[in-house]
Amino acid sequence: MSNFPFQRLQVDLAALIARTSSGQRLPSEPVLAKQLGVSRATLRDAMRTFETQGLIRRRQGSGTFVVGKVQALDSGLEVLESLETMAKRLNLAITLSNLSVEQVAADADCAANLNLAVDTSVLCVRRVIRTDGRPVAYLVDTLPEDVLQIDDLPADFHGSVLDFLLGRGDTLKTSRANVSAIGATAEVAKALEIQRGDVLLHFYSQLYDETGKAVDYSLSYFIPGYFHFHVVRRVGG
What we know:
2 domains, two-stranded antiparallel ribbon, Chorismate lyase, alpha+beta, Arc Repressor Mutant, subunit A, six-stranded antiparallel beta sheet
């Protein structure tokens, strides 16, 4: 397909989305592909643009739905903050769901990032962040047992490991984050109620204390369109 027909397809999709009410489901992929005269593969490529803008979202087994305009979380990355802190500063309402806190054995990736032996017992905290009832982020923190144990967390724990550690008085010093775009795995897709392989913004980070010890290894998955992250940089020279 040449570039112009693909752009025409995106224009047609934009018009369809614009005249469909928020929360309403679009026609199924086979029906929509036939209606627009394209293959399902081409249709998926075109729809990905609107997914990254947060205008539509696919739900596993349910179809593709139009999303109403939402306030995006816009924040710089120069200072490490929890999503809860950023949302409060921006007056954006978010909620927590699917909270899971459990002891697990460190796999090779986790062990390497926390400088532990494989199969060492660690604490894993998983949760989903929602806005307007929609899942927008899936967060996983893994910490050594000598940093955090299940019994340390209060009954009203709201999901932010960073805020808990800071509130407890831990001397946290630096964080290193790697940022990439990835396709959702089966686990992450289920948590975010999207299709496996859908594009997500992915952070994997290590948090260090003042001695240089890695105290937290975190994996964060964000649905594009709901988050605008930026970096303010000094001009060299």
